Amino acid sequence: MSTSFANRLNGSILLISSMFFGLAHGVAPKALIDDGGMVASRSALATEVGAQILADGGNAIDAAVATGFALAVTYPSAGNLGGGGFMVIHLADGTVIANDHRERAPGAASKDMFLDEEGQLVKGLSTASHLAVGVPGTVAGLLDVLARYGRLDRKRVMQPAIDLAAKGFVLDRDLAAQFARRQDVFAKHPASVAVFTNEGAPYRMGELFVQTDLANTLRRIQKHGKAGFYEGETADLLVAEMQRGGGLISHQDLLGYQSSWREPIRGTYRGHEIVSMPPPSSGGILLVQMLNMLEPYDIASMGYGSAQSIHLMIEAERRAYADRAEHLGDADFYPVPIKELISKEYATKRFANFDAKRASISADIGAGEIPAESLETTHASVMDKDGNAVAYTTTLNLSYGAKMVVAGAGFLLNNEMDDFSAKENSPNAFGLIGRKANAIEPGKRMLSSMTPTIVRKDGKPLLVTGSPGGSTIITTTLQVVMNVIDHGMSLSDAVSSPRFHHQWQPDRVMHETYAFSPDTQALLESMGHKQLIAIPAFYGGGIGDANSVMHIDQGFQGMADPRNAGAAMGPGRAQRSAQ
Ligand code: GLY
Asked: What's the mean pLDDT in 525-531?
């Protein structure tokens, strides 16, 4: 675990410990149910925006886009205009498609831009400087998705976000505390101080939070579409911000940004179809690869939380993350062996050295041979009554990105350049290492772990899920999927149950406190698993934040991850709250 990731976890643990509640399996909060569709996201206000769009006749795509714009206002640590994201879409006719609006390296970026003259990484340059910022993609992506698949117009879909920014909303404890504990980092940027303090004093719960500059930026986008962000006043303000701090993004970079339509990664697992995000995310490939390795084993009989099933999952994670470091990057720039990595044959070979009694040693697990040829992000899930479904994950990278608001434009910039491999085999903020496949190149997209995922049964969406959490995104998504498919859990148990994570390097297992019972832990240690690090899972802490939606016989179930302050809501409830 990198220092910043560890600090972040420890910080949440210390600051919110008074709000502890247990997440032991079997005592999960209830999922909501509605027969008209469902939205689940990290922000109750953004969820309500999406649910109201469904109530007003919008489809899941309209609702996801409206929720996305609202998250940029109501959940600024990860919701964004200045970052990027991925959307995996299932249409009622069975089509699946993914929109990639990941940030790109500016045209003036170069492979060694974060190294000093001795070739060493310069601390903080890829996370806390103007050079850390990738060319933002969120606005292009959300508007492209809306134009192609939405039912409502831009004016309707963006208006709730504009209202929330212009009229403000009352800060809850969650957001007020987030702003307060970042006063020091915001202090370096006057425009960030202007937004995230109340005239220099920390905001308090119950105060009104108005974002006038952000409202005006959103209005320009609402009026001019993508040109309202990538051209004109917003672009001028962003480029001026870059020039003030020695950043690289130019008008040409902004004009040249386009979201990309991609074929989702598709795999199968015990009679279900897994539809997830392709490169530049590693999420979909690793998810399918791990499920392929696990499928031959009877996980259900082993039981949730058994040492045997945890051992299997850790060993699958170890091998998949080793492959990530070697083979994964932006497939537009590097020949990622996608077909091979997600094939069942490759999984069989890759897992052939699995020992049911002994942990492998990460140093011995190199990348598999291919036959020739933060922690801060946020996830929203949506289904509508017509059979459309959207899995949407978006990010500024670390919490509040570069902590830098564009002066006059009111939105935060990402620090996504840290997701590149700035130096071979040197860990990024999530402890992930990478090599040539993910080296910096102008215009390239940095490798992501975001794993927006739709699980289909008989061609219909069963589960929409995904998570924030940097490197832990993929294993969180894996566990939610396995909880539903292998263990037959209800959505609320699947999302609430304790989680663990292994990522090959460093060779250690992070686990939520109740994930391993003492005898399970002893068994894992006796097999050779090292460094089992417990992370208390309580409100504001733990691993992941998997706001998910599932279709069951009785309707659409929504479950906001109880580790955080999100909410699920269907159009039925939204209609009632609007009356
Ligand atoms: N910035 C985190 C990710 O994309 O994986």
From this structure: 95
**Per-residue pLDDT at 4 exceeds 80:** no
- Distance from Cα 450 to the centre of ligand 1, integer Å: 6
Residues with CB under 6 A from ligand 1: 374, 377, 395, 397, 416, 419, 448-450, 470
CA angle 436–438–443, rounded 5-degree value: 115
pLDDT digits (tens, 9 = 90+) for 19-51: 333 333 344 577 889 999 999 999 999 999 999
Ligand 1: centre distance to CA 184 (Å): 24
- To the nearest whole percent, how much of the chain has pLDDT over 90? 87
Phi, then psi, of 550 in degrees rounded to 5: -135, 145
Cross-strand partners of 426? none
Q: Using one digit for the tens of pLDDT, what is the confidence trace for 462-479? A: 999 999 999 999 999 999
How many Cα atoms sit within 13 Å of 50 on the Cβ side?
35
As a whole number of angstroms, the distance between CA 485 and CA 453 comes to 14
Task: State the catalytic residues.
Answer: 377
Q: What are phi and psi of 34, to 5 degrees?
A: -155, 145
3-state SS track over 156-188? HHHHHHHHHHHHCEECCHHHHHHHHCCHHHHCC
Q: Indicate yes or no: pTM above 0.70.
A: yes
Identify the H or E element spanning 345: helix 344-350
- Ligand 1 midpoint to CA 472 (Å): 10
From atom 3 of ligand 1, which residue's Cα is the shortest distance away?
448
